[in-house]
Amino acid sequence: MLVGPSKCRNEDYIRINVKFASRVVTLGHILSYVPVPFRPFVAHLIYPPSDKRHLYNHLKPMIDERRTSLDSGSDTTVESDDYLKWLVEATRNKPDDMDIVLRNMHMNFASIHTTGLICTHMFYSIACNQAWQTEIRDEARHAMKEHGWTKKALEEMVKADSFIKEVLRFHGVSSVALTRMAVKPFTFADSTTVPAGTMFCAASRAIHFDSAKWVQPEDFDPFRFCHAARTELNGMVTTSYDFLAWGHGRYACPGRFFASYELKAILAYALVNYEIFLQGGGACPKIHWFVAACMPDSSATLGFRRRPGGAT
Question: Containing domain of residue 283, as a range?
């Protein structure tokens, strides 16, 4: 999706991107306390530029290859139709290879930590209930029998979609959403005025647990969104004033469509091929909070037991 099948399986490339994704949040938090003139210096101390050069060395040959193919008109293969190619194509009139590398790093950051957090919450939740596993597994097997590993099959996994949406409601990645900064003084309809530079956001977790908006919001109901008649408004990617996991409005997360397919594919593959359980049994692991971030318990251990006929 981002750089093609060969590079995305390169362990060194993966290591550097994960390292960047894990450090950038902490770095941003630290830099918020540093006076603006000193931020570049402090940033280089915490995250040295050597990793950027290392990633540049990984991607430079691929950038050159895609640029040559585009210039010659010979790039017609589906395999090379990835994010890296799109960046090369978008910058043909003003090529800047380091800028392409940095944009790729930022895209990896946007997708790695959020998907990783939700996947962990997802597996912790499903490991606590074998009946849920059976229902979603049966649905996935039926969809794949009809359509194979295709987009159509994933779209028919209604229970998987509902389960992941409930994970997003019940846990999510943050207790707030729609974080914005006023670029000029702004007055709301109730006459509240905020000066330029004011940061504000919506309390998404409070909304997701509001009993006036949700039936028994304190209970994790995996098939909550299957109870009503199935419409597009129930889908995981649909945003509303009551469901803010992806944000809302014009600037709702643009990657949520890809993320929804990714999460459903991961869940379906895991359940079709494995039984998932918590090592040592017990209740579902508790969440922890880092400022506004909802963090899964890093001390819990998941077990995967291969099912008969499962993948090797």
Answer: 129-312
Cβ-in-10-Å burial (0-12, 13-18, 19+) of 169 comes to buried
What's the whole-model pTM score? 0.85
CATH number at residue 235: 1.10.630.10
- What pLDDT is attached to residue 190? 94
Regions in the chain scoring below 70 on pLDDT: 74-80, 228-233, 310-312
* Environment class of 45 (CB within 10 Å of its CB; exposed 0-12, middle 13-18, buried 19+): exposed
Q: Which of 201, 200, 204, 199 is CA-nearest to residue 173?
A: 204
Encode 110-142: b = buried (16+ Cβ within 10 Å), e = exposed.
ebbbbbebbbbbbbbbbbbeeebbebbbebbee
Pick from 138, 128, 181, 177: nearest CA to 158: 138
Report yes or no: 128 and 283 within 8 Å, Cβ to Cβ: yes
Mark the binding-site residues, compressed into ranges: 253
Q: What is the pLDDT of residue 17?
A: 87
Domain count, the chain: 2
Quote the pLDDT of residue 74.
Answer: 67
First to last CA, the chain: 24
Binding annotation for heme: 253
